[in-house]
Amino acid sequence: MTASLILERTRADNMPADMENIYLEGHFEKRGFSKVEFLRLFEKATKVHVTKGAMLARDGQENKTLFFVVQGNINIQRKGQHIAEVTANHFIGEMTFLNYLLADESDENIKSSSSSKPSGTIATADATVVTDELVAYAWSFDSLTEYLSGEREVRNALSAYMNHDLRAKLAALSKATTNSS
Fold first, then answer.
1. Which of 38, 43, 61 lies closest to 139, judged by CA?
2. Is the dihedral of CA 16, 17, 18, 20 positive or negative?
């Protein structure tokens, strides 16, 4: 066990340059991630290249993918109106994922307190997300939730990061709304 921990730490300290850049530029350490936790999380993701004009999510439709943008821009729309732009080092789909986690926790409480099976969790997008050319890491909600169920520190750090990300986006949106008034 000790050898495994040492090996994992050594691997994290010598992660590939592209992962090191994401860790540093995304301020993961500042948001509560150790290098080991960061590497574990990103090894569960799939690196995706998305073409310009692709829709990552549609307002009101099911969405079960969380993205972390590494390169490119994203246009966030609600009811056909541009409401924000998201750039590198931000999550996309984090609000839907946090709602999904809360619903999943409620389902667990239902499962443990009754014999009836819940109908399942449906995650719907809060906005339409249209990409520029994009490089991102993607996690399915189901596999990420399963992974996080055994990784409390990673789950807490990820929740803290997403909460910080949401706060920054809301502050930028508020500033943009105030300036356009």
1. 43
2. positive
The dihedral sign for the CA sequence 141, 143, 146, 151:
negative
Pick 2-180's CATH classification: 2.60.40.3080, 2.60.120.10, 1.10.510.10, 1.10.3720.10.
2.60.120.10
Q: How many residues does the chain have?
A: 181
Decide if 136 contacts 48 (C-beta within 8 A).
yes
User: What pLDDT sits at residue 104?
Assistant: 59
43 burial type by CB count under 10 A (0-12 exposed, 13-18 middle, 19+ buried): exposed
SS3 122: coil
Smallest CA-to-CA distance from 126 within 69, 91, 160, 79 is with 79
Rounded mean pLDDT, 103-125 = 52
Cα 170 to Cα 15: distance, rounded to the nearest angstrom:
33
pTM above the 0.85 mark? no
Kindly give the pairing relationship between strand 46-50 and strand 74-78.
unpaired
